[in-house]
Amino acid sequence: MSEKRILVTGANGFVGRALCSALRDQGHAVRAAVRTRSVLDDALPLKSEGVSDEDVVEVGDIDGETDWSDALTGVQVVVHLAGRAHRIQDKAKALSAYRVVNLDGTENMTRQAVKSGVGRVVFVSSIKVNGEQTHGRPFTEDDPPGPEDPYGITKWEAEQVLAEASAATGLEVTILRPPLVHGPGVKGNLLRLMDGIRQGRTLPLGAVRNKRSMLGLENLCSALSLCVAHSTTGTYLLADAETISSRDLVQILAEGMDRKAKLFSVPVAWMEVAAKFAGRQSEFRRLTGSLEVDAGKIRRELGWAPTKSLEDGLLDMARWYMAAKAA
Predict the structure, then answer these.
(1) Do 211 and 245 contact (CB within 8 A), yes or no?
(2) Active site residue 151
(3) Which of 126, 144, 263, 300 is the most buried (most CB within 10 A)?
(4) Packing angle between helix 91-98 and helix 150-169, nearest 10 degrees?
(5) Closest CA to 198 of 142, 254, 120, 129
(6) Closest Cα to residue 55, out of 83, 84, 82, 28?
(7) Quick one: which H or E segment has residue 218?
């Protein structure tokens, strides 16, 4: 594999840290784009990932005006991870706020990348572009987009901007749509779930038999590394080889945390009624609905395969969590 100069945006994030390390291990020259140095200094010792101070570039807030010139100089491939993912309570403002980063920020970065001579952009989108649930068959790349929330909508809009740039300029664009990513360093819902298990909370998921696709951090990094190396333009769905129910997810995490899984069974129909009255239908769907992903295309075309099973990845995450709590 020939060495490439690769810019990783969002390098101080959950995925960015692991990807910088993986790419460095493969012999690539990695440049890490971060919003601010204070975030880097306080939260991410990138030196431990093999990235020197001179290869860290502060770009400020990501929007339609961000200056990427220093970050892009001499770069051949951009892996664009940076984006807005956390929820905004004010629904009236949510879509415009997501668009500033996920759409305008991506369009601006892509325009400057083309001008700078970058040959390839690998964009991490989301399975939310396909939709929130599956019913009897997994999502594939051939399904029509069906994003429902501002995050999924703006990721789909960014995909279209990238496709237009590719058609107009010849820029190679590879788009990956992962489901929920798990692994050491995780935040958000999975971290809160592990908090609940550690605290001994009893969860009403004993009767849930759904099928959810997930993606291990190690497996995502292996796919991204493959896309960096391959000259290809296209969209690929990603997932671990196995699916899991919400009930089994709790049980595996509890095993890795050396805790007892405290579950009780409530009819799913009752949970649905309660969620409706509480205005928490979206959370109910994530806990009880199925979301299956078919990653066959990237396996066939690029030869990708998960390097770690779903169960092993979850156990690793649970053990990391307990070690972090004990530190």
Answers:
(1) yes
(2) yes
(3) 126
(4) 20
(5) 254
(6) 28
(7) helix 217-229
Per DSSP (E only), the strands in the chain are: 5-9, 29-34, 56-58, 77-80, 120-124, 172-177, 181-182, 212-213, 215-216, 234-237, 243-244
How far is it, in rounded angstroms, from Cα 236 to Cα 34?
Answer: 26
Task: Round to whole Å and give the CA distance between 45 and 48.
Answer: 6
**Backbone torsions φ then ψ of 237, nearest 5 degrees:** -90, 145
Pairing of β 5-9 and β 29-34: parallel
The one-character DSSP state at 12 is: T
- CA 319, chain centre distance (Å): 21
Does the pLDDT of residue 43 top 50, yes or no? no
| Catalytic one of 98, 151, 236, 321 | 151
Superfamily for 5-186+215-240+291-307? Answer: NAD(P)-binding Rossmann-like Domain (3.40.50.720)
Question: Which pTM does this prediction carry?
Answer: 0.91
pLDDT digits 0-9 by tens, 299-326: 999 999 999 999 999 999 999 999 999 9
